[in-house]
Amino acid sequence: MNEEITPTPKKERMISFKRDQFYTVMVIVAFSVGILTGYFIWGANPTASAAIAVPQQGQVAAVENQAPPTRYEIPTEGFFSVGPEDAEITLIEFSDFGCSFCAKWHNETYEDLMAAYPGKIRFVYRNVPFRAFPAAEAAMCASEQDAYWPYHDKLFSYEYGLSDDAYIQYAEDLNLDMDSFNTCMSEHRYQEFIQNDMDFATQLGIQSTPTFFINGLALVGAQPIGAFKQVIDLELAGGS
């Protein structure tokens, strides 16, 4: 076959499309070095009266005339946390027990990340239960018996799935007082608390889970530990 055959217009379009994709990725990676590989922190100017345009997973942000990264003000008081309150790094996760990517991050990245920075990270969990609102309620009900984090871990194990029967089984496995737990669930005691949390996230502009804020810097998606370390190391070195 003659190797000098000119590509057909269709092939040309495909080659051009792939080349454009490659250049786009390279520009984005270059822009992200030192802050984040593959995800973007938009330079919106947040106000109390306007929703903040948090970047979504896979979304390409314009790299020209990019404003400095915004540090979002995310309240942490009254939400469950792990780590010292005066830690140098505050890592806030907006998550959903029904989100497989959230479970993936929790099961594959969370412990290693915390172990990599002993005593330096305060991890805060906030609810955006797009898929599993009752699971968030169940975790809150377990918190009444000082079992929030063990129950949180049970939910992300998906051992019994996510259902009314599963929530009871997880509680039984943790030896919770079932009368108290079931009463809490039937009363929907934490429905308003969780809904307020969800409303805040929606107003902020969060549309997918997990979404993280590292000292106020937005990071979207179940990223590997290296993506978090890039941001954290810069913060520990004096900030970006």
From TrEMBL:
<keyword id="KW-0472">Membrane</keyword>
<dbReference type="GO" id="GO:0016491">
    <property type="term" value="F:oxidoreductase activity"/>
</dbReference>
<keyword id="KW-1133">Transmembrane helix</keyword>
<feature type="domain" description="Thioredoxin">
    <location>
        <begin position="55"/>
        <end position="237"/>
    </location>
</feature>
<dbReference type="Pfam" id="PF13462">
    <property type="entry name" value="Thioredoxin_4"/>
</dbReference>
<protein>
    <submittedName>
        <fullName>DsbA family protein</fullName>
    </submittedName>
</protein>
<keyword id="KW-1015">Disulfide bond</keyword>
<keyword id="KW-0676">Redox-active center</keyword>
<dbReference type="InterPro" id="IPR012336">
    <property type="entry name" value="Thioredoxin-like_fold"/>
</dbReference>
<comment type="similarity">
    <text>Belongs to the thioredoxin family. DsbA subfamily.</text>
</comment>
<dbReference type="InterPro" id="IPR013766">
    <property type="entry name" value="Thioredoxin_domain"/>
</dbReference>
<keyword id="KW-0732">Signal</keyword>
<feature type="transmembrane region" description="Helical">
    <location>
        <begin position="21"/>
        <end position="42"/>
    </location>
</feature>
<keyword id="KW-0812">Transmembrane</keyword>
<keyword id="KW-0560">Oxidoreductase</keyword>
<dbReference type="InterPro" id="IPR036249">
    <property type="entry name" value="Thioredoxin-like_sf"/>
</dbReference>
